[in-house]
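--- STAGE predict ---
source: upstream dedup step, 1 unique chain passed
mode: sequence only
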Amino acid sequence: MDTVLIEKAGRIALLTLNRPEKLNAINYAMADRLLALLDLLEDDRAVGAIVITGAGERAFSAGGDIHEFSKSVRNGADEALKLFARRGQAVTQRMEAFTKPIIAAVNGIAYGGGCEFTEAVHLAVASERAVFAKPEICIAIPPTFGGTQRLPRLAGRKRALELLLTGDSFSPQRALELGLVNKVVPHGELLKESFALAERILRHSPLAAARIITAVTRGLNTTIAEGLAIEGEQFARMASTRDVHEGLEAWIERRTPSYTGT
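--- STAGE serialize ---
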């Protein structure tokens, strides 16, 4: 059984974390499959946006597969770091820097690595049934897929530390307040709302979307001066494209632009 399923609907690819009997826990095979699919979709010009959700009614993802990674831990820190931590970080880094928008459709439990996936993607829509937690401290480890770094940047240091140090679960409404998700919707409307958000983005130039994502991702952790330089670089990359000329001409002519991604 594929650990991640892929479907395409127009210009949107739907990736489904597919271990429902394990609450879509992220094992090594799922992480590797996600990386392979992201590589595939990056080169697919027919796909402009990605939605990620979880199989079944209970979970987006309950986090890392403890039964699997505990074996690596028992084999020593070097193996645990290589097989578990670095693999998980590779996935979240890939999501964060991906040049096509990725939207998490959080349909249930998003604990540990599932929460870290939500932190790393560009946008997130949560079902009213979703529940979040940073429970790694309960098994005496820090988050390993980037949670100690991204959550404080999203929520602020003190609010993030409360969640990281207690392991307490929190509601989708709290996730919205913290900036972890963009919207909370009725459960039955989750995929519809996530796809609608993707479609709103797909009205625009895919090249411009990529440049914006790159500028934000690279600039977030720099000084304002360095960030402005990155912003200028991304603008310069767009200035000679067909899309920017089409956008300008369409605005002047008061018509809907037709972008080619070139």
